[in-house]
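Sample log: DUF3995 domain-containing protein.
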Amino acid sequence: MNKVSATKRMNFFERFTKSAVWPAYIGCLCAFMYAVFVRFYHAAGGTIGMPFKMKDPAMLNMASYIAGLVIMFCGFALIALIKPWSRTIPLKVPLIGGRKIHPLTLLVPTLIGTAFLLTHGVSGMITKVLVLADVISMDFPAFVEVDVDHLALLDLLFYEPWFTFMGIMAGLTAAHYAQASGVRQSTFRWGTVLYLIVVFLLTILVTSSIIFDFADVISFKI
């Protein structure tokens, strides 16, 4: 009876994220596809989707390779978050098997990554629209030559939407993990609101840093 009552008190977002595990699978698939067909492709010397020439191509290739590995790891990490062993260490593990994993151990890095993805994607789309509209200009000191409009269009239509979508999938997976880990409903609800406020403010800060040209101080753009 109490369980039914508690379920009725949940809002739509809470009910949805409590049962939905598909965002983890979709997020993992998108991460894998992006890592293989974009990052590893560029690391191997591919030039499609790169309307520019770097001063140090070898550095770009290595950066793309490392980014691909990180992205692929993060994709598989989403799958891990929906598995029981992400909440309780399997009994087969010597000495520590059966111990519960504190939710913050995995939630904190996941939420930090989610904030990065959402901020990167949303701020990127806003600023690229402004670039294409000739409202602002952007400098690329690491490039020997660059087609700014082509690069901005690629970012707007492909790269930044990918970051935003991955951020949404990661956020939904984190919400599922929090509820599956037994985080109190009130804590989950207020934590979600505060987190969204922080991401919103962070997005404003990063967007402003690019528009008003103090991005070199705080920007974490890749």
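Observation: The chain is about 70% helix and 5% strand.
Observation: The first helix runs from residue 2 to 9.
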